[in-house]
């Protein structure tokens, strides 16, 4: 590349407490197959220093296919190409997790997801609960697509968009996309010496997408276009995105000290405002949860979660993960006081209504959360 990361302006990194770091294949794959710590080590050091500063990081890492290629050389040249890539992903996933584990004293957890996991409400909530619990346990979640079953996603090689979904899943403040390019340019700097760096993008529109070319390396199958698509998805969830050069140790040192060098893609709304806007306007499931006066006041005035003890009655039938209206029980046809994502089905809520949260396990045989609707998943109307 003719342009360098130093062409981008050094400026403050947006403030954050939780981030998703997407690491491209080119940063972990060795030439000819296998994995290398050459760039991964500096990325891991950034994660460690962030953790020491009280911040949380979820890693979304590519590289399983490259790792598998070293175990079975020539696999892609024999048999069905898609089946071979799936087999290589299965073989290489353990090596990929092993690479990351060697850099951390704290445990590394493997989390394999498909886009279907993020579209299905119940699986979405299960994945969210697992990732948040791993962060609470001070583990380093390393997420990858479940390539052995994600035929379409594997063909696209699109961990950039998966990272955007994960950022929304865990309520991240920031999405960090590391690759082997310094950021977005007005044209492909490999082909156009007049290409200029783009320090900041207010909105990912057609003119911005037109600046993106194809895949950036022979190892990865994504490119700047998929990174911008991911940034647009993150922006819609109120999450800002930084595109930066993961091969540049100075860029990583800057980020560890609250500065950045690369392209910042802004979000039009804050993360909280975007989520509340979605909850307010998304279609709700048939039925409602009716609450007593104390619970209604706690929701509307104190920003509390809805606990089972405040539930009086349940109307209709809905599943865990549905958006449901919450109404005060007093008065016929009362307008909803709130709406939110329920952690339990209508049937389960009827069983735990008016009971203490600590009784959920005994009553149901399992527990997803102490709350029927957590305050992070609730908007007051």
Description:
An eight-stranded mixed beta sheet has the order 4-5-3-2-6-8-10-7, sandwiched between helices. A five-stranded mixed beta sheet has the order 12-11-13-14-15, with helices on both faces. It is globular, with a radius of gyration of 23 Å. It has helices at 40-52, 64-71, 81-101, 115-119, 121-136, 151-156, 159-169, 206-209, 224-236, 249-256, 271-281, 293-302, 346-352, 360-364; strands spanning 11-12, 18-23, 56-61, 108-113, 140-145, 174-179, 200-201, 240-245, 259-260, 263-265, 288-291, 311-315, 323-328, 336-341, 378-380. The model is unreliable at 153-157 and 214-221 (pLDDT under 50). By secondary structure, the chain is α/β, with parallel strands linked by helices.
Q: Secondary structure elements and their pairing?
A:
Layout: E1 11-12, E2 18-23, H1 40-52, E3 56-61, H2 64-71, H3 81-101, E4 108-113, H4 115-119, H5 121-136, E5 140-145, H6 151-156, H7 159-169, E6 174-179, E7 200-201, H8 206-209, H9 224-236, E8 240-245, H10 249-256, E9 259-260, E10 263-265, H11 271-281, E11 288-291, H12 293-302, E12 311-315, E13 323-328, E14 336-341, H13 346-352, H14 360-364, E15 378-380
Parallel strand pairs: 2-3, 2-6, 3-5, 4-5, 6-8, 7-10, 11-13
Antiparallel strand pairs: 1-9, 8-10, 11-12, 13-14, 14-15
Helix pairs in contact: 1-10, 2-3, 7-9
